[in-house]
Design goal:
- By secondary structure, the chain is an alpha/beta fold.
- It has four helices and four strands.
- A four-stranded parallel beta sheet has the order 2-1-3-4, with helices on one face.
- The model has no long low-confidence stretch (mean pLDDT 90).
Length: 140
């Protein structure tokens, strides 16, 4: 399936929506400059975003301190062009006609900022590649 030319929507999903999916959504929001609609959610959301993730993102100049983990809903999946999962397994709903990617990344849960940095950097690289594919900078 190809992503529509006009403002594609991407949903990042992980279990707790407190680490990987928050970082991915923040990077895509930051880098896309409004060219992509971005959502994130978790199959079993935590109460807060992982503090080490907040700190690691702050080091990259992106403030996610005010973000709150959100529960994954069928409507969020249905209204997204692309769903990128990060370890939520069978709890992620699947709809025909959507593009699904599974990014296998280490889980930052319970890790300090030093362990989160390489995960953050890998997510940033993947998000940059995704953005080049679905909404190149020459596209409005």
């Amino acid at each position: 399936m190809t992503i529509p030319a006009e403002r594609p929507s991407v949903l990042f999903v992980c279990v707790h929506n407190a680490g990987r999916s928050q970082m991915a959504a923040a990077f895509l929001t930051h880098l896309a400059g409004g060219r992509v609609q971005v959502r994130s959610a978790g199959s079993a959301p935590a109460d807060t975003v992982n503090p080490a993730v907040v700190e690691a993102m702050s080091e990259s100049g992106i403030d996610i301190a005010a973000e709150v983990p959100k529960v994954l809903t069928v409507d969020a999946v249905r209204s997204s062009d692309m769903v990128i999962t990060m370890g939520c397994g069978d709890s992620c709903p699947v709809f025909p006609g959507k593009r699904y990617l599974d990014w296998r990344l280490s889980d930052p849960a319970g890790q300090g900022v030093a362990a989160v940095r390489p995960i953050r950097d890998e997510i940033e690289q993947r998000v940059r590649g995704l953005l080049d594919e679905i909404a190149p900078s020459g596209q409005a």
